[in-house]
Specification:
The complex is a heterodimer of chains A (616) and B (218). Chain A is α+β, with helices and mostly antiparallel strands and 616 residues long. Chain A contains 20 helices and 9 strands. Chain A has helices at 3-26, 30-52, 58-79, 85-92, 101-112, 121-141, 149-179, 182-210, 215-240, 247-278, 284-312, 314-331, 340-348, 396-408, 410-462, 468-495, 504-514, 531-552, 582-585, 587-595; strands at residues 354-359, 362-364, 377-381, 384-390, 519-523, 557-564, 567-574, 599-603, 611-615. The longest helix of chain A has 53 residues, at 410-462. Chain A is elongated. By secondary structure, chain B is an alpha/beta fold. Chain B starts with a strand and ends in a 7-residue tail after the last helix. The relative contact order of chain B is 0.11. In chain B, α3 links the parallel β3 (48-52) and β4 (78-83). Classes of the chains: A alpha+beta (616), B alpha/beta (218). The interface between A and B is medium-sized, with 29 and 25 residues.
Amino acid sequence: MSSASARIWTASATLVLVVGLVGGVVTTRVELAAAAGLGLVCAGMAWVIQVRVPTSPVAPALAWCSASVVLVLIVDALSDGALGVGVSALTSLFATAIWPLNLAGLLALLLVFPDGRRRGPLDRAVPWLFLGASALLLGGLWGGDEPAGPGLAAAAVGIALVGVSMVLATVSMALRYRAGGELAREQIRWLMLAGAVVVALLVGGWAAEAAGVSITQAYAPFVVGILVLVPLAVGVAIVRHDLFDIDRIVSEGAASAATVVVAAGAYGVAVGVVGSLADRYTAIGPAVGGFVAALVLLPTYRVLRDATARVLDRDRFRAVRRVEQFTAAVRSGQAQPEQVEDVLRGAQDDEDLRLLLIDGSQWVGLDGRPAPECEGIDVSSGGDVVARLVLGRDSLRARRLAAALARAAWIPIEVSRLRLGLRRSQARIAQATAQERKRWERDLHDSAQQRILATGMRLRCLQPGLDADRSAEIDLAVTELQDTIAELRRLAQGVRPSRLDDGLDAALEDLRQTTPLPMDLQVCDLPEVDESRTLAAYLVVTEALANTLKHGQASRIAVRVGRDANRLVVEVCDDGVGGIATADALTSLQDRVLSVGGNLAVSSPAGMGTEIRAVL
Amino acid sequence: MRVVLAEDSVLFREGLVRLLESAGHDVVAAVADATALVATVAELGPDLVIADIRMPPDMDSDGARAAVEIRHQNPAVGVLLLSQHIELRHCLSLIGSPGFGYLLKDRVLNLDDFTDALVRVASGGTALDPEIVKALVQPRLRSGIGALTQREREILGLVAEGRSNASIARRLSLSDRTVEAHMRTIFHKLGLEDDGTTHRRVLAVVTYLESHRPPDAP
């Protein structure tokens, strides 16, 4: 349905209702005015849908559901002489035959609810059948007074066909119910309930009429039913089961309206109380009233918003509440912010939901692994996008919920991101340091040493043909240069042992051979780790060794390197006096291990030796 | 002696050329990277190649890899590797084989020892820097040499010359299987269990060379 035609249909229904209301009030026909009034409420709801989903036929169908009833009442009123005899004579020609119109809106609603699509040939045939039946009835009963034989027969067939089309419309809805998802079923169930009650009231009306009750009284329950129950059912279906994404609007609208009422009440009470105290009208009354109303406005709105959300938008309310509780737990230190993804998955009821964080210009998961960029709901901090929720099950409703959850989870998300950024930047610094050391080492070897060697060679080239004294002098100079090279090599070794190129085991074996303390070295199968971790492992051993030499008074030291899954494990034990305070002596060791994302355990009971275990 | 030199540092290369020429050797080519080295050796067929381990194009163990390739293509050419520091990754398979030497660069300044090493390597002998031997040989191995029988020493000596088991068997008129059995005993006595990672044959040879080397000779 195009949005223009839908709007025209809804507008025309509204016009009918307004005419009915005005006419009812002017001619003091209470039932018409009341029906039109109820119908306008229904039309209001239709307009909300109309604005929200402009192409849906549900809005005009809902509006006409009440407008058609009011239209019948208007025709009744006209044939009753509301606008004079001429109109009365004209309308009474068909007034008795027009009652199927009562059902037209309901029929349309049955055919298009809830998603506004007509599917099979059945859905397309029913309106024509209904129109034909109405025409037959109209033709048969044309003229009003006591129809003759053939007319009566045609009318009887028409009535039967109206019944058949209502049954078929119900069948169509039942088919939709069977084919529909859980949500559609819930929504249809409400309308079916209302439809069943309305039809029962209609049949009851016939029975009452047959039993001699006046027409107005007999059909009053039906009219009320179709005017109240059907819109109510549609309303419940929409609000409770999130049709057309209206629940939040309705919920917040209801909260705002109730707040206005409460504030107005507070104003009135305040004005009244002040007025009675002052015993006459003073300017103080309205002033105090305004003050009181302003005072209650915000808290009332908050309370009412929560209350209406709890009633009308329960799932969402619970989900948001759950995330808010988690955020509170993070603030009070009872939960880790990194759990936020699991909490969001639970609240969103979406196992495949993922939280991506921005690190520099790159998207990463909570574990720090790079993730491909995906569509999702952005979380911003100070105008910059810092995180994104990627939904496993995507829908308008899911996105809206996710956006609300992301707002509620902003603190844990941002804290997780900052902590991750810190870890990653530490790792980058460690890596850069390792690279730097490697470069220094190479520079020392490749630049300084080469030059010294070249100088030495030049001296050697000068040597032949010199007398013994000068030759001895050159020997001395060359020895000096060789010592310098050895010194440079030791220096480079301190920066980064070049044997690390041959592997951690080779470097540690070198260390074992040069250390003054007997060292038991056990190298097991090692995992593949990067340069920064290899270097960190080596430096852990050298620093632990230095510590032992300085403080430990040990006679032996045992070094074991191995793996735990894909992590590198370094253990250093000595048989010294132990008792080192972790905080003082081992800070640099601790920093070194932490900088590559590892952890360090130190056990140093007095008199029992020291044991250091680093997992990298 | 015809020498091809490969060294990327100009200073060191020029110095070494002068040194070699003053010692009466003929430097037929001096190149600056490993790729050129392999090509030049194939073209000129020198008696000896002297190569820096760390060279372009990758500034990694390019020299060592080139040495392995040269050994593969032209086994008669002696290869002497030079390095600023010990780096064994790509040349373990060459260590102990005839006509191969590996020295730290500053040995160059001890001219007599250095030229001795050159001649030795060019004529199919070996030259290993004491530092490198120290890095390779674990102390427990040295004591193992004493436990070998006369025949086992003889076999290990032949292995150290770079002979295969089959060639040793022919030389000593033994069956292949007997030589293999001897090798297993030698490994066992030296404490070289087959852990799949170390090159047992290399370690055995290095241990042998170490035990036959006069103290402090390069």
